[in-house]
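Example record

Each entry pairs one chain with its bound ligand, N-(aminocarbonyl)-beta-alanine.
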Amino acid sequence: MGTLFKNGTVVTASDMVQADILVEGEIITLIGKDLSGDGHDVVDCSGKYIMPGGIDVHTHLDLPFGGTISNDDFDVGHMAAAFGGTTMHIDFVIQPIGGTLRDGLETWRKKSEGIAQIDYGFHMAVTDLNDDVMAEIPTMVDEGITSLKLFMAYKNVFQIDDDTLFNTMRVAAENGMIVMVHAENGDVEASLTPALLAEGKTDPVWHASSRPPEIEGEATNRAVVMSGLTGCPLYVVHMTCESAIDALRRGRALGYPVMGETCVQYFFLTVEDHLGAPGFEGAKYVCSPPIRTTHDQGILWQAVKDGTLQIVSTDHCDFWYDGGHGPWQEWAEKTGGTDWVGYEKQDPSYRRPGKELGKDDFSKIPNGMPGLEDRMMVMWDAGVNSGKISPSRFVELNCTNPAKIFGMYPRKGTIAVGADADILVWDPEVEHTISAETHHMRVDYNVYEGMTVKGKPVQVYQRGNKLVDGDEWLGNNGDGKFIARKPNAQVL
Ligand code: URP
Ligand code: ZN
Ligand code: ZN
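Structure tokens for the complex follow.
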């Protein structure tokens, strides 16, 4: 007995067709017209779209960063993702300074194994390159990790130098891997920040001045040039502005294997209205690179439409706005460390530190914001309902290109016979008002608070198992699988 999705409109990156879909076990076994429901569970999809589960290739769950740990983990974060139609994500393992890649991998396995509720993969962030680590890079392919991430910013935390970037690209190219960069000139930022603070410019809005678009454009160009020299596929994460898009476009015109993403928040938030909000409110919107201007938003929409950008992700990395509740010293003594997550579970009125860490100094505000649950609904409403992109381009940006670029296609990212049955039943008519009161992410604000979107997933399936049915959660810890990815993936 299988599950038959009947009478829906199937949306893939290339087509929109009326068809029925049969799922047996974990995979799609048949697609056709007027399939018989005899002996199967029938899901009536009249008036609905049937789409592949979303894939968010840029998340930071349970990440120690900025003096705290990002809130959502592989438990609650997964549930929130699925309520928004995302059935798989790729998170960033961080190599500990002085440690190996494998040390980082072990840490991220502990965060996820037996806990995960949706499928997931890992990118490997190289933070400390030496000859031993260089030799370790190819072994990551055997672990199903085929993408390396390098931070050109966050000096004295994650930042690498040009030597490291260039040599990592060489090794990656030899092994069929892709290199991802956070492209901002961290040295310039590290000079600008203290100068601003010395002038008394401590409010959240000054975060944008410490990381101007020029330093994103410069770093993007540097990485693009290195990709051209090494032949290593490059994927620039969270692109925000005209100078960076121009650099990517130039590289693509030269035939370099360079690609990029933006994140959904960069289409909506601005320095003026959000980062510059009264009081400390702007801290909610502190992320790096910073949110920009309406002019840059137009550039990003154009880049998404003309194919300069291939993916829209979230960079989900959420922190309490009103955090830091509870006697931390006592708890640290009790647990012999800083088990803030355990602390919160013991009593939900306790909260680990969050954005308030930077009350008097914008550079101490933990960088990042929530979005994992919102991405697809917001992109559908602002992209498809507005006529900027077609439903197929929506699927391409949120599902198919992520699978193609990161080595999971056609198992993931499409509706096809033999693919994993990661399926969204999407109701284009239903209206939903986004709010922190009702979202499933473990965070006390939503950057789209009050936005009413039309269109949402009403049922969500992962490998044939129903995870979401309306407002009901049906997933289980341990049901999410690590997805080993293949090298030599597509350059789009
Ligand atoms: O502000 C951000 N983006 N936080 C997460 C870490 C990163 O740079 O992606
Ligand atoms: Zn980044
Ligand atoms: Zn990130």
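The chain is about 30% helix and 20% strand.
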